Amino acid sequence: MAILRKNGRAGAVAFALLGIGCLSTDEPLFRAVTAPASDSDSAARAALEVTSPNAAALPLRAEEDLAGSLELAPSSGEDGEQQEAAEETSRSEAELPPVVAPAAAPRGSCSEPGLLFCETFEGAASGAFPGASPWLAELPGCGTHVVDESGVSASGVKALRANSGGYPECMLHADLGDERDLYVRSWVRLGAEPQLREVYLSLLELGPQESQDEPELRIGLRPSGGSLCKTAPGLDVSVSGIAGGPATDCSGVVLEPERWYCLQAHVTREGSRLGVRLAVDGEDVLEQEYERLGPGWNGPGSFLKLGQAAYGPSARGAVWHDDVAVGRQPLSCAP
Cβ(327)–Cβ(183) under 8 Å? Predict the structure, then answer.
């Protein structure tokens, strides 16, 4: 069989018709004519001579319409490769599963069971004391504890900022009723000022009186140069109103500036005994039980106090609290 090179629209149509079996093999449509080897390059091309009487009636326009209706694909070359690549890409994309963005985990959950209250400060007015429930009204002459919307927050966009020079009476107060088994959580962040680690300050307090800070259980920061926690500065627990005088226990955990920490405390009261377990970022750092509580602890109420309080010289610098929660069951530092 002679090898035919496609030369023009007529040749393309003829090959397509032969491929789909539309022409009879009894009447050949083309006869190959081979030029002599000595001819020029243009004469060496194969010429096609029409021999079927029916083919002569096929006009050029009909050939184009027929070729269009058959949607002939390129037999070779760059166009064919591009089409195959496009089809392969389409098939690959159809087989890929849909991309689902992961859900962001909350920094501190407010949907845990057994909650008495949970505060993210997102609903409080910026630059003001958060006076809505569960917090009691701000006492006169304070102004040191305000809601901050500068972007320093554990979650959301707001947090409580406790400025330097705060008195214990100016901390946020919440009435917890007659609860004797409490879990407390607060995310805490210290400012960059080095003075915050040079004096004693309180971060969380729990006591039986609303407007007094004695007797009290305090969770705070002890400096390295003080008489208490001299060799183990950092977070401490101190309890006043005990027969024989106040007691202080040191954890030795130092909080770095400008970093959020999750503080968790479990406080129990049973008769004249007070127990506390302190954890940082989910790891227990201190556990102690204090006995022989004085009569000042016998009041029916229990109040949480939150922020920054100075006992002695006031520390220059701010402390932030966020995602504060109090409950009857353990509270997580999620995630």
Answer: yes
